[in-house]
Amino acid sequence: MLDLIIGAAHAQASSSQSSTEATLSTMVFWVLLFAIFYFLLIRPQQKQAKQHKEMVENLQRGDSVVTAGGLLGRVSRVEDDVVVLEVGEVDISPKEKRSVRVKVRRATVSGIVAKSVGGDAANDKDAGT
Fold first, then answer.
1. Helices (H), the chain
2. Could you give the CA distance from residue 127 to residue 122 in angstroms, rounded to a whole number?
3. C-alpha angle with apex 53: 66 to 109, nearest 5 degrees?
4. Which of 55, 85, 92, 118 might form a disulfide with 96, Cβ 3.0–4.6 angstroms?
5. Dist. CA 91–CA 83, nearest whole Å
6. Domain range list for the chain
């Protein structure tokens, strides 16, 4: 009878040890899985969002940009949350052309195609509008 009790106590102790080892290995697995997701998914996405925010904050008149919708244009004016893009010209008369301008939100600018290099004559002419 005494062997039966001692055997049961010994089995219970080893089962408790394996349960602790299983819990520890499960925790290590989840920590490693989270670390992999962080370095492969979360961190690069945060870095990309930071770069986009900096790019949008540094928009200047004369930059050629592309919007998230695929619209190409040159920045004519930068306001608080809005950017005015010059997307082309329309013929008013045989001798007169007017630029076509579109207002877009800053956040929709997805990239800069070409940076402006100082002020050129076309941009200086538009300064009053």
1. 2-37, 43-57, 121-125
2. 9
3. 15
4. 92
5. 24
6. 1-57, 59-128
pLDDT tens, the chain, 129 aa long: 545 555 555 555 555 567 888 889 999 999 999 999 999 999 999 999 999 999 999 999 999 999 999 999 999 999 989 999 999 999 888 889 999 999 999 999 999 998 776 544 444 444 444
The residues facing 82 across adjacent strands are 105
CA distance 115 to 67: 15
Rounded to an integer, what distance in angstroms lies between the CA atom of residue 67 and that of residue 107?
9
Mention every residue, 6+ apart, whose C-beta is less than 8 A from residue 76. Answer: 61, 84, 85, 86, 99, 101, 123, 126, 129
